[in-house]
């Protein structure tokens, strides 16, 4: 391992990304210590998903540095990128399950495809992970379309932890869930991440999720991280952008696009 235990698991330095003339990320600096859970908040269209895609290597940052456990993602391709990605687990917005695969096959996908785990062994692991997210083994034989949204999120979480990843990314993990189910999912996220000792990076607008799953919070606005601190300091950040955002006020320094032409 190239990195030491004190070095951050994930570090972004001066990350820029533009689409044509539109600058979306404008020097993002962010660091997630090992074993910590950092949640990035920010309004719609502020670049949270673009930042996540740059980390995952799904989009290429124009410049800057993104290191995962000391390994540089920016400019890395092919097998070297796959090796970095093998450390990742990911819970996508809307769970993003494969409709044509049974639930257990969805959970086992990364094990069978990515790690070459034997089907029978992968099945056993998948059933164990399903139990860990509160689903009974018989759910493993169903298809995603037969499940409620909350159950699909659980399956997505089981898939995210299937390979016992060192880093887990959560993209709007509670979108589309009622507040009680959202709380259940947040609780499961905390439990499973802690059990793995994993480092977590999440993006969300759900303040309930932030308060439940974050050790630290960072706010992105104007393509930059404009505040970062422990979740306990969120209420007293002294930053007018953060205050406006967390209290959901239309008045403040964040200009709300009302969709007028
Ligand atoms: N592939 C792309 N090509 C061009 N523009 C893009 C592309 N992907 C994202 N953008 C633009 O980048 C900006 C940031 O988008 P992004 O999806 O990262 O926002 P977000 O903060 O995740 O928003 P939300 O919370 O609504 O999901 C938007 O203006 C979007 O239109």
From TrEMBL:
Report which superkingdom the organism of origin falls in: Bacteria
Which keywords does this Swiss-Prot/TrEMBL entry list? Answer: ATP-binding, Nucleotide-binding, Transport
Q: Does the keyword Transmembrane apply?
A: no
Which residue ranges does the record assign to the ABC transporter domain?
10-247
GO MF annotation list: ATP binding; ATP hydrolysis activity
Which InterPro entries does the record match to this protein? Answer: AAA+_ATPase, ABC_transporter-like_ATP-bd, ABC_transporter-like_CS, P-loop_NTPase
One Pfam family recorded for the sequence: ABC_tran
Q: Which PANTHER family match?
A: INTERMEMBRANE PHOSPHOLIPID TRANSPORT SYSTEM ATP-BINDING PROTEIN MLAF (PTHR43023:SF6), PROTEIN TRIGALACTOSYLDIACYLGLYCEROL 3, CHLOROPLASTIC (PTHR43023)
Protein name according to UniProt: ATP-binding cassette domain-containing protein
Q: Which organism is it from?
A: Futiania mangrovi
